[in-house]
Known about the structure:
Layout: E1 22-29, H1 33-44, E2 50-53, H2 62-65, H3 97-110, E3 117-118, E4 123-129, E5 134-139, E6 142-151, E7 173-176, E8 190-194, H4 198-207, E9 213-217, E10 224-225, H5 234-242, H6 246-261, H7 263-267, H8 275-289, H9 293-298, E11 311-312, E12 325-328, E13 332-335, E14 339-342, E15 347-349, E16 352-355, E17 371-373, H10 380-387, E18 403-405, H11 417-438, E19 442-445, H12 447-460, H13 492-501, E20 507-513, E21 518-522
Parallel strand pairs: 1-2, 1-6, 2-3, 4-17, 6-18, 7-16, 8-9, 8-16, 9-12, 10-11
Antiparallel strand pairs: 4-5, 5-6, 13-14, 14-15, 19-20, 20-21
Amino acid sequence: MTVVSDTAPNDAPQNTDPDETKHHEVVVVGAGFSGIGTAIKLKEAGFHDFVVIDEADGPGGTWHWNTYPGVAVDIPSFSYQFSFEQRPTWSRSYAPGTELKAYAAHCVSKYGVTEHLRLRTTVESARWDEDIETWWISTSKGLITARHLISANGILVRPNMPDIAGVEDFAGLTMHTSRWDHDVDLRGKRVGIIGTGASAVQVIPTIASQVRDLTVFQRTPIWCMPKPDFPLVGPLRWSLGRLPGALDIVRLVSQLFVEATFPIPAHFDRLIRVRPGAERLALAYLKSQVRDPETREKLTPRYGLGCKRPSFHNSYLSTFNRENVSLVTDRIDHIDAGGVVTGTDDRHDLDVLILATGFKVMDPDNMPTYDLAGEEGLLLSKWWSENRLQAYEGISIPRFPNFFSVFGPYGYNGSSYFALIEAQATHIVRVLKHARRVGANRVAVTQEANDRFLEEMLRRRKHQIFWQESCANANSYYFDKNGDVPLRPTTTLESAIRSRRFPLSDYDFRTANRSQSHVVRLTP
Length: 524
């Protein structure tokens, strides 16, 4: 057992015996695919003294927590996987959630991550100790320390509870889609669902045939288009697993499809005008699916395609043709013991209330999900709230040394999360390897590099769809409280290239000689 210091910093928990403190070179917070991918890359680079902490009782992150009926990926399976661990045995072109959870367990086992997992452990706070260049990390199971701290928290984990008066007064059963209670039998029940985002699009058609009545409360309609979802039959899976290059070709086609359906239209809307044509096709699809003109009108978006993430589903829209399904677009006034009351004083009596209200995505206190204090006790959530969301290449923040984020502001461009994970892990490991090579125990992005990157992101966003007039009524979670959309306005290929070629001189590598009380700067 390694003892880092005889005393904890002033703001570290004081009730923990330092002799019982466990130290690691790297601590990764989050055992979803971000944490798994980072752990694999750390091991490949020769880093073995690390742990991966997660509050869940198993790996998988989003796919561990989200088990609601109909849960599945919303991009092709061949893009939603690691490039170095391509699976030829997906059951469908858009894999169900159970297969993603199994894929996470497979990767953990195959790449030796299991021994590094510390599950059922919640990180409560992290504090940087400038004197010993160490992070003090308070968890539900005690205090640990780390030279480097990597946040691999996913953004589709923390439920966003609706701010509706009386939501806690409902006498029936209430559950959020991300915390689905599978012991609940919906058969014959009067069910209400609040929200029509990505989760609701999958839940609604799955449960509609089981319930007595299904009332859908919609604030903003979602653009919904058909998806090429089909079973991957045995001969096809056999071919993918045995024909040389087959998986790579399918993955390339899948990646091009993903790039063409969101990153390029969203980030280059002013340069590549594909949106008008795509909107016409989507509206034609809506018309072909929904028979009632009034319902169809309610389901018609009043904002541009791409202002918020569109959805792909083959039976969501047609579900509103069912006699037991009703769509309510009036504002919800409050919820009482019996059900939902709208602003028009119409009440909807319910037995079960489902909250499909999404997640805390762009909230400063969700990246990471715990209090993080850097130099001089500066809280990251407070600094972001006062200075807008920003991070160099979506990874590093000035004044927070030895801290890296896989899903930081301006890191993700809307493509596959796996493309993001591999790019960010490559960047992080490149920095850590250089720090080890030059003997640096303190690494921090320079203020100049951070400012330069943020200025570039803000300059390039003028071509994005989010800043066009058509997005005014989108109610998109992409926008943070400062009115920014911290998505990266680049192609996926550019992001991958930059993760390998960013100047190491954008970081300040230092080593502290404590016996002589001075700092030696190491130039890359």
